[in-house]
Amino acid sequence: MSFSCLRHIDGCEKKQYSLEMNGNYALDDSIVALATPFGESAIAVIRLSGADCLERLDKVFKGAQRPSETPGYRLIYGLVMEPVTNEAIDQVLLAVYRGPRSYSGENSAEVFCHGSPAIIKRLLDLFTRVGFRDAGPGEFTLRAFSNGKIDLTRAEAVNEIIRSKTDKARSLALSRLSGSIEEAINKVKDQILDLRTAVEIRLDYPDEEIGGSTELDADLDSLSSQLKSLIDTYSTGKMYQEGAVVAIAGRTNAGKSTLFNLLLREDRAIVSDIHGTTRDFIEGLISVQGVPVRLFDTAGLRQTDNPIEQEGIKRTDRLIENAQALIYVIDASSGLEEEDRRHLEGFEKKIPLVCLWNKSDKSRTPPPEAFIPFSALEGKGVEALNQALAAILVKNSSTESSSPVIDSLRQKNLLEKALLALSHLKKGISDEQPLDMLAVDIKDALDALGEITGEITTSDLLEKMFSRFCVGK
Q1: Where are the alpha helices (DSSP H) in 164-255?
Q2: Element (DSSP H or E) covering residue 261
Q3: Are residues 229 and 244 in the same domain?
Q4: Complete DSSP assignment for 383-436
Q5: Of 150, 169, 188, the domain-final residue
Q6: How far, in Å, CA of 244 to CA of 81, rounded?
Q7: Over 90: is that where the pLDDT of 457 sits?
Q8: β-pairing verdict for 108-115 and 88-97
Q9: Which residues have a Cβ under 8 Å from the Cβ of 102 and sit 6 or more positions away?
Q10: At what angle are helices 152-163 and 459-466 packed, to 10 degrees?
Q11: Can you tell me the distance from the alpha carbon of 154 to that of 160, in angstroms, rounded to the nearest whole number?
């Protein structure tokens, strides 16, 4: 199925793209999806959208007003009924939205019904029988993009904000949803467009003296710096969105499991004075200054003849190899032993370390340099631990400022492509290359930036991107 996407190009010119979409995203159908989790709840929300959406609802909705005659942004009360038997299925509120002033850019509605699984199933079945198709993943947002309501960076942010695991990740995704990435891209693109205009004028009128600013005087270093600054935020954005793996390691009875329970704020790991109690790793999810962290309590490191304990130690080694940080715990009451020194020397070459001088409440021995005094039993030192972990996980973070932060690999790759094109352009100007060769580099930079916002796109890209969304968004 094809659709035409009318997008704004270069801030003023309009260009039409025709994309061939597969049957899962036939954008001229009327679609329906449950927008809330399936299960018992006070209220469930069913979303519907399409050019003839409201006319199809006329067949099953009975209230003071027909949906097709209701102005946009109105709530109407009524019954959803079987069209043949007139059996009432549920009392509902129906929200009516009219295109283009709707989320999807076309006529749409939301049905607020009682959250009974039986009611939800009956309503979804009824809507499909009167001509609605089950929506594909992210299809409402795809329609918003195709109708020019949002660009691709905002569309990606919709999924990112839904999947955010911490409040910091939510905040960053909301910034992208509000257009911070689009604004930054357009700022650079506008300056490149001025450069393109200068080149085109000189190509069109090579023998004439042109007035005004037609020199190739754009500050390419500044443009490149802006793109690089955005690229450099990727590792930070990815960390806040996807999170990190952090392992707790140390000798047996150092207090690792007590620390694990403390950070999770629940009794997940068994705590015992018996050496080798933890035989396999245990996982839990925590937030470290806004970074979602998968925290692992691991088997104690020691020489042992027990085959099960040996396997647990092997699994600990494999886990540490894939972790972003390691918390090494030492029992301050027994001190820093030679076995600890060997482990620390090996780990320092592989992974960033945070070293805890645990049970410091039971010891008068001061912690070695770079060790954090800690008491997992009393909860002392947690803030210092969080700060040390955050410093490792989020390096050179710019998230405290108003600067946009990306977490999309697609966007990062395209920014690097645009940056490379500007590098070629700068060298071409320096080498006094012909204008038509410079124009190619300018076009490459603009095309890469246009792909980020969706002004240049393909159906394969859209289908791959929106297939990661949940149904109903």
Answers
A1: 167-177, 180-204, 220-232, 234-242
A2: helix 256-264
A3: no
A4: HHHHHHHHHHHSTT--TTSS------HHHHHHHHHHHHHHHHHHHHHHTT--HH
A5: 150
A6: 50
A7: no
A8: antiparallel
A9: 49, 72, 108
A10: 20
A11: 10
| Cβ proximity of 48 and 34 under 8 Å | no
Grade residue 395 by pLDDT with cuts at 50, 70 and 90. confident
Quickly tell me which residue has 């109708």 as its tokens. 147
Distance CA 338, CA 310 (A): 20
Structure-token pair, residue 414? 């395209």
225 has a pLDDT exceeding 80: yes
Question: What integer pLDDT is reported at residue 306 of this predicted model?
Answer: 56
Asked if 250 and 376 sit in the same domain, the reply is yes
| Structure-token pair, residue 361 | 């409440």
Domains identified in the chain, total number: 3
Cβ atoms of residues 68 and 109 within 8 Å: no
Tens digits of per-residue pLDDT, 191-209? 999 888 888 887 876 655 5
Domain containing 307: what range?
240-393
Tokens read off for 464:
């791959």
CA distance 83 to 96: 20
Q: State the DSSP code for 99.
A: T
